[in-house]
Design brief:
The protein has about 400 residues and is of the alpha+beta class. It has 3 domains: about 20-185, no CATH class; about 205-270; about 280-400, 2-Layer Sandwich (Heat Shock Protein 90), CATH 3.30.565.10. The chain has helices spanning about 20-30, 30-50, 55-85, 105-110, 110-155, 160-185, 190-225, 225-245, 245-270, 280-285, 285-295, 310-330, 370-375; strands at about 300-305, 335-345, 345-355, 380-385, 390-400. The chain has a 5-stranded mixed sheet. A hairpin with a 2-residue loop joins strand 2 and strand 3 (about 345-355). Helix 7 (about 190-225) crosses helix 13. The longest helix is centred in the first third of the chain and has 45 residues, at about 110-155. The two termini are about 50 Å apart.
Length: about 400
């Protein structure tokens, strides 16, 4: 006989069942000791913090530490409820260090105070629920033999519906506590607001990165290829005037013009870094990265295990690889390099590894500095592992959902 007949009120909340009884007991029985510990720590910390407020830094530090401990207790409760209900408890959002000072961020964060409130309020609730749970457990053990005998003799008799009643009582007690966790220890509105702010910052970063790229291209074209093309035009005009009268004099001018052409092409290739090439649009990421790897002076192996991707993801992956290869060529002193682009679940992982001298980082003024901002526009993440003397690995994770 099972008791999985009535659905839970909350579609995500488990129903009363024999299997769920074990999880409910595993959640409820340790609850009172945890609640007592959390209550004592919160009350003592709050009293000391307020009482020592006249010693500004000491009081603030104690309050911040108390709120930090409240976060730990709350994280434990979310984990316990998640185990009991077999689903993740959230979302939850805390103020980041960028939004406020390192110490004061806990004092300014509303969710931290809600965590503290939960640690205080849960104790009286848990005294009740724990008492009910222990009484339920003692009663169930006490009549278990009687129920077994009734089943053997009379097929259950008057105890036929008792297991169902007991399962629902325990499930209701567990649901009471988990409702407090969902109500006080999650904050979907704040999490959505933080996500909107993050997307806004990401968009601003992408716009700024594109503006910086355009300014760089304009400056580099003016200072490099444009000057060489002016010089090339002058040399060709001079060679044209002298070609019929003195071919020997015109020959060095033509040779210089050829050299100027090669140098202008090289500078144009350098300037075009940061601009998606036509091959990326026409033939896809694999072909574009094959061309980029072939241009790299360091021998490079390429492994691209993806088909055509959304345009923003392809562009971001291309820029990660080309920027990393440029740094390999200029700064790494590497003898070999490896590029891989693979799809893992709902994201694309890009990795560029070399065996050079290491020491690369995202500091301002370095070639990799703008990549993090560019990846922010597609919710990507950039990681660099570059211990001195042990090579460099540039990794990027690009979620396809962002496109």
């Amino acid at each position: 006989m099972t008791v999985d007949h009535e659905p839970a009120t909350d579609p995500g909340r488990p129903s009363a069942s024999w299997r769920q009884i074990g999880r409910d007991l595993g959640y409820l029985l340790p609850g009172l000791p945890i609640a007592i510990a959390a209550f004592v720590v919160m009350i003592v910390g709050l009293a000391l913090g307020v009482g020592l407020a006249v010693l500004a830094f000491v009081g603030v530090a104690i309050l911040a530490g108390t709120l930090l401990l409240a976060r730990r207790f709350s994280a434990l409760e979310r984990t316990r409820v998640g185990w009991m209900e077999k689903r993740e408890v959230g979302p939850v959002h805390y103020a980041s260090a960028e939004q406020s000072g390192r110490v004061l961020k806990h004092l300014r964060d509303r969710q931290s105070w809600r965590d503290l409130g939960f640690c205080v309020l849960i104790l009286p609730v848990r005294v009740f629920t724990w008492s009910v749970t222990v009484t339920w457990l003692a009663f169930s053990i006490g009549i278990s033999l009687l129920i077994a005998l009734a089943w053997l003799v009379a097929g259950g008799g008057g105890f036929r519906g008792l297991p169902l009643v007991l399962a629902h009582i325990l499930r209701g007690v567990a649901a009471l506590e988990s409702s407090l966790v969902w109500g006080l220890l999650t904050n979907e509105t704040a999490a959505l607001r933080a996500r909107a702010e993050e997307l806004s910052r990401s968009r601003e970063s992408v716009v700024q990165a594109e503006a910086d790229t355009l300014r760089r291209v304009e400056r580099d074209i003016h200072d490099g290829p444009q000057q060489r093309l002016v010089r090339l035009t002058m040399d060709l005009e001079s060679a044209q005037r002298r070609f019929d009268e003195d071919p020997q004099t015109a020959k060095p001018l033509l040779e210089g013009a050829v050299l100027q052409t090669k140098e202008a092409l090289a500078e144009l290739r350098a300037v075009s870094r940061g601009i998606a090439p036509p091959i990326l649009t026409d033939r896809g990421l694999a072909a574009a990265l094959a061309a980029a790897s072939a241009r790299c002076p360091v021998p490079t192996t390429l492994d691209v295990a993806v088909d055509r991707l959304p345009t923003p993801i392809e562009n971001a992956a291309y820029f990660v690889v080309t920027e990393a290869l440029t740094n390999v060529a200029k700064h790494s002193d590497a003898t070999q390099c490896a590029v891989s682009v693979v799809r893992v679940g709902d994201s694309v992982h890009v990795q560029v590894t070399d065996d050079g001298r290491g020491g690369a980082h995202l500091g301002k003024g370095h070639g990799l500095a703008g990549l993090a901002d560019r990846l922010a526009g597609v919710d990507g993440r950039l990681d660099i592992a570059s211990p001195p003397g042990d090579g460099t690995t540039v990794s990027a994770e690009l979620p396809l959902a962002a496109s």
